[in-house]
Amino acid sequence: MVFWHNLDMDLRILTADDVRRSLPMAAAVVAMKQAYLQFSNGEAEVPLRSRLEVASHDGVTLIMPSYLRRTEDLAVKIVSVFARNPERNLPTIHAVVVAVDADTGAPAAILEGAALTALRTGAGSGAATDVLARREARTAAIFGSGVQARTQLEAVCTVRSIETAWIYSIDEPGARRMAEDCAGKSPIPIDVRVASSPEEAAEGADIICAATTSSSPVFPDSAVRPGTHINAIGSFT
């Protein structure tokens, strides 16, 4: 973490590593529950996000402000999703979050937003899973193999005692890398498998997370068992 100083204020600058160290997944799940509760109680100002198309580069930039009145949390996120970035060995998502002092309006911190977006989205699914999924859930299926998919898996395993996790992705090498990187990394079980088809991943799952940018279904409904909990965080537009 670094600081930017001038005569009027100190501005914290948090890198992706700073964000991950400062906000473990279990704490992020609790924070998401608190934020959702304020939103449900009418204690949040969340204007419709502004959307800027960058069609010539197959991208979109979104501007998202929010204010939680009870906890006095005020921030703006700017996130860009550029579909061609993987061809350049760049992340699909880039983002920055500016935290603002709700008392004075002064910028308080700038946070690397891609890591925070992945963490927050994972924690959102973790909160939903904790409230809605069966307590005895032991098998998870993750569709996708990017950054978002990894935090989905981490979040689900944080709130349920998952014994087996399946990963399916159209990027099979990416799925294998994810399985190798995540297996046994607490709280994720050692038994992480790469599925050869969407059906193989979904048919035995107690919890399914769809973490892709696909605009069409990524698994057939016929493969979903009764009682399965689904976190559908896919196509965002």
Helix content: 25-40%
How many strands?
13
* Radius of gyration based on Cα positions: 19 Å
Instruction: Give the averaged pLDDT, no decimals.
Output: 93
Poorly predicted regions: none
For the largest beta-sheet, the strand count, sense and barrel status come to: 8 strands, mixed
Net shape: globular
Measure the end-to-end span. 33 Å
H/E element sequence: EEHHEEEEEEHEHEHEHEE
In percent, how much strand structure appears in the residues? 25-35%
- Look at the helices and sheets and give the structural class: alpha/beta
Output the number of helix runs.
Answer: 6
Describe the model.
The chain is α/β, with parallel strands linked by helices. Helices cover 30% and strands 30% of the residues. The protein has helices spanning 16-22, 25-40, 113-132, 147-159, 172-182, 198-202; strands at 2-5, 10-14, 44-45, 50-54, 59-68, 73-82, 93-100, 107-112, 139-143, 164-168, 192-194, 207-210, 229-232. Strands 1, 2, 3, 4, 5, 6, 7 and 8 form an 8-stranded mixed beta sheet that branches. A 5-stranded parallel beta sheet has the order 11-10-9-12-13. The protein starts with a strand and ends in a 5-residue tail after the last strand.
